[in-house]
Amino acid sequence: MLTSAATDPELRELPTRLEAPDLIRAFRIMYMSRRIDDREILLKRQNKIFFQVSGAGHEGIQTAAGMALRAGHDWFFPYYRDRALSLALGMTAEDMLLQAVGAESDPSSGGRQMPSHWSSAQLHIVSPSSATGTQLLPAVGCAHANRYLDPASDAVTLTSVGEGATSEGEFWEAINAACLEALPVIFLVQDNGFAISVPVEHQIRGLHTVRISERERARTEQLLTSGMGFTLFAEENGWKRYAVGEGGSGRVLDVEELPNVPRGAWGTGRVHHVAWRVADDAAELAARKRLHEVGTRTTEVIDRFWFKSVYFNEPGGALFELATDGPGFGIDENMETLGKELILPPWLEPQRAEIARGLPTLVTPAEPTPASAG
Asked: Are residues 214 and 153 in the same domain?
């Protein structure tokens, strides 16, 4: 359920403004972070250190996170730009500069870890990897383990990641695992407009290709070409690439033949199904008719209220779906307030109270009022 400070009396009692000492501390942390960054860049130009990762521009959100959470109680799985976060949790400028020069007295790793990879057992800061996104699943595992070791603990686990790494599978796997177990994990995504060196307009924006392995590929290929409008685009290293239209993101399917691969089935750790978009009801009915003409059995059109679906198994057992674009979420909700209330399809309305009881409370910021604005 969604709750805001405007409607919940208990939330209205929580502090909403930082006192002067808090603001001064925050400023000192952000300023120190930037000054260490600048000094390390200068040292690198002087060939006194040989690696540096800047956290410039990230100082505000990191300082806020570090001040809101509890070093040595909560757990932290940072990434290599989390300089201000580490300072807010209790690391010092000296700690960071000792690591930058690879000193034996580096408290994080004795000079063995790369610069900008801070850690502290006492502060519960776990040593990060240079490979982007690899900290996410261990963070979820930490939260899960903490629940087993101390079920009464109110500790949370924070993990940071840049916006580019959200395109990696580990990000989605971590979110899925955390949601399945309702784990106390905070995913702090820091978007600086560049995934290391890739501007936003060139970053991954969607699911480009689906890959399936078939015991016998020929029947699936016939379904793709005769029943679904795919054409063969390329073949390499045992894989055949099929595409709809001109191909591109979301229009490509790669198929390989492996004689010993098991037939497609549902189960934990598997992809449930692959959904293919169709424009509207007429396009869906036409696609369903083509499938019947090539001998593929399908479900009837299933009304999902916000869209309509047709399901069928391809010859290898993988479940495919044809899903319409419309009518969309605007059919029963104002797009300007989308997501602020619990919206259910008509057939679940009788269970609204039961469903609501099982949902966690999500706190949304209070809407500004004329009296509080500014």
From this structure: no
Same domain for 257 and 171, yes or no, is: no
Structural domain includes residue 361: no
On whether residue 281 sits in a domain, the answer given is yes
Is the pLDDT at 8 greater than 60? The verdict is no
**Is 50 exceeded by the pLDDT of residue 97?**
yes
User: pLDDT at position 12, please?
Assistant: 53
Q: Which residues pair with 312 in a beta bridge?
A: 320
* Average confidence score pLDDT of the chain: 89
Q: Is the pLDDT of residue 2 over 50?
A: no
Distance CA(29)–CA(164), nearest Å, equals: 26
Domain co-membership, 180 together with 226: no
20-45 and 93-100 helices, crossing angle to 10°: 20
Which DSSP symbol is given to 115? T
Helix (H) or strand (E) holding 194: strand 194-195
Per-residue burial over 185-207, b if 16 or more Cβ lie within 10 Å, else e, is bbbbebebeebeeeeeeeeeeee
3-class secondary structure, 18: coil
